[in-house]
Amino acid sequence: MNAARFTRGLVAVAATAAVLAPSGAAEARAGASVTVANMAFAPATVSVALGESVTWTFQDSVPHTSTSDQGFWDSGTRSGGASYVRRFTSAGTFAYHCTIHPMMRGKVAVPVRATGSPGAGWALRWATKKAKGAITFDVQTRRGSGAWRPLVSGVKTAGKKFDPARAGTYSVRARTVKGAKRSGWSPTVTVTIS
Predict the structure, then answer these.
(1) What is the pTM of this model?
(2) Domain boundary among 82, 110, 138
(3) Are the CB atoms for 107 and 185 separated by under 8 Å?
(4) Model pLDDT for residues 39-71, shown as the tens digit of each residue
(5) H helices then E strands: how many in the chain?
(6) Where a domain ends, among 83, 110, 137?
(7) CATH number for 69
(8) Edge-to-edge, what's the strand order for the sheet holding 82-87?
(9) CA dist., res. 156 & res. 73, Å (int)
(10) Which residue range forms the structural domain that includes residue 162?
(11) C-alpha span between 150 and 110 (Å, rounded)
């Protein structure tokens, strides 16, 4: 890497750090709403950005839950217009169900955040903050249509600079791990390196 590209990279990382720093209300912004009615989650699949929330509104008079298949959350029993809000602070695809009515199923998809440029590289962010307890993250990349390769596995860090030596288009995906349980892989994001 030449000195000019290295300097551009440092400037991009500094600018990205300022943008990614937690800012309280900005990090807790609303993302998607799911209506729980007529024995279904509607829509059954939602996508939110890293740090956004999903609000479930339980309209039926019959009680339901929103319960993560991997144990990441459980709303408890709700009905009659009650709501439950969960902020998604890490990337992955999170399947969930109603514990009372197991045929009711849904998913929340949270992609990795990538900021930067093809010439300076990319700051990848798969969590809003460093993991605690049994939580870790796995992140994979692939160049073009090649095989997925680990970028990091089993880490607690929330992000990493991505600037490989080989130019090309790369896909990035991540998942959140809690002990022996794993979310599904996040939707892929694509970045270009020049």
Answers:
(1) 0.83
(2) 110
(3) no
(4) 999 999 999 999 999 999 999 999 999 999 999
(5) 1, 16
(6) 110
(7) 2.60.40.420
(8) 40-42, 30-37, 53-58, 82-87
(9) 19
(10) 3-19+112-193
(11) 19
